[in-house]
UniProtKB/TrEMBL annotation:
InterPro entries cross-referenced by the UniProt entry: PsdUridine_synth_cat_dom_sf, PsdUridine_synth_RsuA/RluA, RluA_PseudoU_synthase
Domain Pseudouridine synthase RsuA/RluA-like: 13-166
GO molecular function annotations of the record: catalytic activity, acting on RNA; pseudouridine synthase activity; RNA binding
Superkingdom as given in the UniProt entry: Bacteria
Source organism of the structure: Bdellovibrio bacteriovorus str. Tiberius
Protein name as it appears in the record: Ribosomal large subunit pseudouridine synthase C
Entry-linked PANTHER family: MITOCHONDRIAL RNA PSEUDOURIDINE SYNTHASE, RNA PSEUDOURIDYLATE SYNTHASE DOMAIN-CONTAINING PROTEIN 1
Originating gene: rluC
Family recorded in the similarity comment: Belongs to the pseudouridine synthase RluA family.
GO terms classed as biological process: enzyme-directed rRNA pseudouridine synthesis
Signal sequence interval, chain numbering: none
Amino acid sequence: MIEILFEDAFFLAAAKPAGMPSQATVDKSRQDFFTALKNQLRNERGNDFYLALHHRLDRDTSGVMIFAKTKEANEPLADLFKTHKIQKTYLCLTKRTQKAADAWEVDNHLVEMKDTKLKKTKMVRTQSGGDRAYTKFRKLEVFPEALLIEAQPLTGRMHQIRVHLADRGMGIYGDDIYQAPKNPVAPRLMLHAHALEFTHPFTHEFVRIECAVPADMAQFMKTLTFHSKND
C-alpha cells in the first residue's frame, strides 16, 4: 500500500518507495509509482478522480511526491515548482570527510554528459554554459564513517545533490553513477526526499509535508555504526 501523506481538495502527496520510476518508462513491464498510485486510488475510490504529475524523483530515491487533484490546481502547482516557491528537503548518507562544515552552499553550473563506460547520462560541472545548480547543505549527524546530510536544492537540475556532494569527496552511499563509498554496501542510493514546504496557492496557509525515513535507510544507519565498531 502506498502511504498518502497529505490530501485536501486540490493536492495529494504520497510516499514513493525506492527502486520504482516516478512515471512510466519505455519498458511497459516495469511498474512505476504514478501508475501504481492511480491504480490504488481507483481500487479505493472508483474511477471518478483526477491526478496530475508535476515533478519526479530518481528511480532509486524514496520520499514525498505531490500531485494536482483538479485541473484548476495544475497551473498553481506548476508555478510553485517553476518559480522555486516549493522548498524540497532531502536527507542523505554520505562519505565522511574532514572538509565537511556544519553548513555550506554550492552554486555552480552543470551540463549533461554521456558516460560511455557506464552507458548512462550524468551531470558534470562546467565553466561555461550549462544550467545553474544551487544547493544548501547542513550536517545533521556524524557517524564513524559517514555523515547524515540535509540538502535543500534551490534549483531543479538532474542529479544536482548527488553531483554536488560527489565533487566534494562526499559521495552518497549506494550511488552507482557518481564516486561514492563502496563499503559497507548500501541496499540502494541513500537519498530520501524528506519534506516539501510551500504556501498553499488556494488557502494561503503554510504547508509542510514530511515523509519519514524508510526502513531500509534507517537500518543502513545502524549498519554504519555496527560496521565501524567491528573493523
